[in-house]
Amino acid sequence: MAHRAGYVNIIGRPNVGKSTLMNAMVGEKLSIITSRAQTTRHRIHGIVNAPDYQIVFSDTPGILDPSYKLQETMLKAARSALVDADVLIYMTEIGEEPDPENTFIRKISRARIPVLLVINKIDQSNQEEVEKCIERWNNILPSAEKIPISALENFNVDYIFNRILHHLPESPPYYPKEALTDKSERFFAGEMIREKILLHYKQEVPYAVEVEIESFKEEHALIRISAVIYVERESQKGILIGNQGKALKKVGREARLDMETFFRKKVFLELLVKVKKEWRNNERLIKKFGYR
Question: Is pTM beyond 0.70 here?
């Protein structure tokens, strides 16, 4: 039997459940998940291997109208998903009104690759609403296969996986067979810290945050990690640290526990908070923080 391999890129507007779907497909928590929009900032690959196939899933930042340079960079990452996909998943949800004039939708309508239009959060709806949603999308993307799912409840996720396998082209693997992702351990450590900040802080603070892992030293039974959390203003620094440092300690404790589960080792985590004024509009700093 010939070996099959390909890129399956997941795109959609923010907060439709793209990260939940990819994590379910890969079987590992690679993309952080919160109820906030713009949780995903980088394009993240999750790799599924079997003797006769390799699927490279790609979770991208949500499609949005950028307000600052960081968001412009995030939008570029989302656009790139339209270029190199072998199978494209456009993820929407019950209640989203499709816009036929949307640039991404128009490009998807002209795609010459298989498109799976995945309608998420049907657990929050009923059969009549699901059918109406499918009908609306049929008028805009008639050639796309419409698949209603609940990523949170894992409903119909196996069906999507089987449809991907059906469309996967013949190809040798793109990555070593033991690979799970293209991202480093440092990257995931930083994302675990950022996830806790997204969960525990309100208003603008989580969006003004960037995490840089300054040191990642792995010993026999312990990983020592030193991280700097950057914010844009002194007032944000004070909020992040909290009274007597309690808020930051909570972030560090929860992130450390997640890291110990992920890395399967004890972790010593040190957190510092520094100010980099207006870093989200600074192209040099955006590149320094690993955005392309």
Answer: yes
Fold (CATH) for 4-167:
Rossmann fold (3.40.50)
Q: What is the pLDDT of residues 205-263, one digit of tens each?
A: 888 999 999 999 999 889 999 999 999 999 999 999 999 999 999 999 999 999 999 89
CB 13 within 8 A of CB 63: yes
CATH 3.30.300.20, the chain: domain bounds = 185-288
d(C-alpha 268, C-alpha 197), whole Å: 18
Reference 48, options 173, 155, 157, 171; nearest CA is 173
Q: Is the CATH number 3.30.930.10 carried by domain 185-288?
A: no
238 pairs with which residues across the strands? none
C-beta of residue 19 within 8 angstroms of C-beta of residue 154: no
Q: Given the structure tokens 């070996």, which residue do they identify? A: 3
Q: Any alpha helices (H) in the chain, and if so which ranges?
A: 18-26, 69-80, 103-109, 127-140, 157-167, 185-200, 234-241, 246-263, 283-288
Residue ranges for the chain with pLDDT beneath 50: 33-37
